[in-house]
Amino acid sequence: MLTRQEQLEWILDHYENPRHKHPLDDADAVVEGGNPGCGDIIKVYLKIEAGRVVASFEGEGCTISQASASFLMDEINGRTLEEALAIDHAELMENLGKEIVQQRARCATLSLDTFRAAARKRERAQQLPS
Amino acid sequence: MGNNAYANPQVLVSTDWVAQHLSDPKVRIVETDEDVLLYDIGHIPGAVKIDWHTDLNDPIVRDYLDADHFSALLQAKGIAEDTTVVFYGDKNNWWACYALWVFKLFNFKDARIMNGGRKKWIDEGRELSKIVPGYPKTTYRAPSRDDRKIRAFRSDVEAHLTKKLPLVDVRSPGEYSGQLLHMADYPQEGALRGGHIPGAKNIPWGKAVAEDGTFKSAAELQELYGSQGITPDKDIVAYCRIGERSSHTWFVLTYLLGYPNVRNYDGSWTEWGNLVGAPIEK
Hints:
The complex is a heterodimer of chains A (130) and B (282).
Chain A: H1 4-16, E1 29-34, E2 41-49, E3 52-60, H2 63-76, H3 81-85, H4 89-96, H5 98-101, H6 105-127
Helix pairs in contact in A: 1-2, 2-6, 4-6
Chain B: E1 12-13, H1 15-20, E2 27-31, H2 38-41, E3 48-49, H3 52-56, H4 67-76, E4 84-88, H5 94-105, E5 111-114, H6 117-123, E6 151-152, H7 154-162, E7 167-169, H8 173-177, E8 201-202, H9 218-226, E9 236-239, H10 244-256, E10 262-265, H11 268-272
Parallel strand pairs in B: 1-5, 2-3, 2-4, 4-5, 6-10, 7-8, 7-9, 9-10
């Protein structure tokens, strides 16, 4: 188990060296989520390849929101969509370090909510007649 | 630093001034950010952190901390009655002004803002530290909080409306018009209705600062607010979403322009936009 300081440094590493931060030109769905008041923005790109999630993000905003997005992208890439959608707020915050992010729950879960919105958008698009 | 004809020039200190007072035992530098982990990434050497959310708010009731908790906070940060507290932070000192406003609810005597905030300090290539300092505990005792002079409640805003007194909505034009409440495909949050309080003028808080995060000159600020009828002879209430951006405007009007009668409605749009039957304009 990481100490608080180690957890903090891990979060800061995700912020300063974000994983999967880039656009995805052939995404099945792209959704932008954010808090208009405080300025956190996350844009999630999602596609499914061979039954597995391929996802990336772009964004700007506070340390927690951006680090969370980086961590989440690490977690969901390569999983099935069902597995990725099984991640809930509690699990995400636990992995980020609940003590550190609990007062910024909205920032911490912005990436997950935006990813879920992207999944819904993809599903709707798949259901529409071509 | 010239005073730019501010009404209270002493409330703004420069980055040079802060650099010269890093070891001054009568000065406490306090970082307060919207991005709560910035302090941990690096801060002005010797600065302490006050997290507006965890340190300044009551954990149960939507309100600020009481005198006992405020006393404990300042004691722990090594702040005494005669300490000069200098706030700085990210986003053009937005949250630093919010923290200063809370300090003033307790009538704390000497609270100032480092002009330009965290960004200016960093842009000037000044030293940052990750060391969290400890200071001897003080015996500071806060008076009871007195909200009447600088804080407006819902009933005050309703009375303001009845008398057609000036309101300043400092949010973005999109929020003011009601276009922005939430992003598309994202859970609705903040308020059930968009728009603004009837009669409020829209003067976004960020218009009070220059590109480098420093406050604009007194002349520019007078034009910014005066041109919209926000003048020193009036009883003014400023608001935003939760009172944080409007505290920045409160600071500008009260300290830089010397307006004697400015209150911050911290219930702001998260209260008004959810109130059953409250009048709204778009």
